[in-house]
Amino acid sequence: MSRAATAPLRHLVLVLGDQLDADAAAFDGFDPAQDAVWMAEVAEESTRVPSSQMRTAFFLSAMRHFAAELRARGRPLHYRALDDEGNLGTLAAELRQAVAALRPRALVMTAPGEWRVLAALREAAAAAGLELDVREDRHFLSTVREFRAHAQGRKQLRMEFFYREMRRRHGVLMDAADPSQPEGGQWNFDADNRESFGRGGPGAVPPPRRFEPDAITRDVQALVRARFAGHPGRCDDFGWPVTRAQALEGLDAFVRERLPDFGRWQDAMWPGEPWLWHAHLAAALNVKLLHPREVVAAAEAAYRAGRVGLASAEGFIRQVLGWREYVRGIYWTQMPGYLERNALGA
Fold it and tell me: Per-residue pLDDT tens for 123-178?
């Protein structure tokens, strides 16, 4: 007998395309006998600002793989595919339709990464007379409240000071003998991480880990080619990680093969070499297939084991623990007015 036949729906858990973590806060207290998950692919997320074909294919494939994982875990799922007949094209419209059909008592979600999306879903929930329980996004190491406290009273915000605070708070690359001090006696190694290639170029560069498209991804590629033919780029040469297992494999390969030289060459560029020693991990981090804590821990462990120099480990960790967290804090503490700012007169 189905859940719907035995009990009313308590919580409808909303999962967005960049929230592909089965252990996210939205699932805290999830009961498959009373709750269900809702996911929707909608054209608006690729057309509001024209998305490249590759980016759209990555999101749709990762979402469909995650949906398969949820079903395997026995979590009731209501999934709306982009090519389903009658797809309404926006998250808010699809949610309104789902609420009318499923009649949940409340909506639950992890905090989204975009102000526009949060506002639209809150409006849809309010129109249906439902509470929207927005829970903390645990895929960041600083909450928005913590960043606001850091920024309080400062005449000028600088990433460097926030980064040092994060290092201390989370005990990352700190001196074992004096945990208040940075490993190696200095907070950053920018002076060691700004080399450029000579005339001979970068030489042999270990390639990023790539993954052969499976049937799900191939279906998505065909859909994207047909639906978004006029969008930038192509999605034919697809090799991105679309599952957590693939993302973890990509992280391991980066730490072993390219992190040792990441610091030295992190700002260097060369024609025809788009990746060089960079991580190729941002996509997996952004859709929550990887957690920044495990990414930072992997880099630090490689340093502690003597496989990676301190300058490279610090330079990479700064991007994840520093810039990624800092930019998010700026965004959420300054929105919505931040959207209209144009300090450089562009």
Answer: 999 999 999 999 999 999 999 999 999 999 998 899 999 999 999 999 999 999 99
Q: Are 134 and 141 in contact (CB under 8 A)?
A: no
Question: How far is it, in rounded angstroms, from Cα 242 to Cα 253?
Answer: 16
Contact 326, 159 (CB under 8 A): yes
Rounded to whole angstroms, the Cα distance separating 66 from 35 reads 18
Rounded to whole angstroms, the maximal C-alpha distance in the chain is: 72
**Share above pLDDT 70 across residues of the chain, in percent, rounded to a whole number:** 98
Task: Write down the pLDDT at residue 342.
Answer: 85
Q: Which of 180, 208, 200 is nearest to 280 (CA)?
A: 208
Rounded-to-integer distance, Cα 334 and Cα 248, Å: 33
For 204, 259, 262, 263, the CA distances from 305, given in Å and listed in that order, are: 25, 13, 17, 17
Pairing between strand 132-135 and 11-14? unpaired
What mean pLDDT do residues 183-197 have?
90
Task: Show the beta-strand stretches assigned E in the chain.
Answer: 11-14, 36-40, 77-80, 106-110, 132-135
Query: What pLDDT, in 10s, does the model give residues 226-271?
Result: 999 999 999 999 999 999 999 999 999 999 999 999 999 999 999 9
Task: Say how far apart CA 184 and CA 311 lie, in whole Å.
Answer: 9
Interatomic CA distance for residues 338 and 112, integer angstroms: 17
Contact 51, 97 (CB under 8 A): no
Q: Which of 343, 338, 324 is nearest to 147 (CA)?
A: 324
12 beta partners: 36, 107
Mean pLDDT of the chain: 95
Task: Tell whether pTM > 0.90.
Answer: yes
Look at the alpha carbons of 17, 22, 25, 30 in this order and tell me if their dihedral is positive or negative.
positive
Give the integer Cα–Cα distance in Å for 118 and 120: 6
| 1: pLDDT strictly greater than 60 | no
pLDDT at 4: 44
Decide: 144 and 326 in contact? Cβ < 8 Å: no
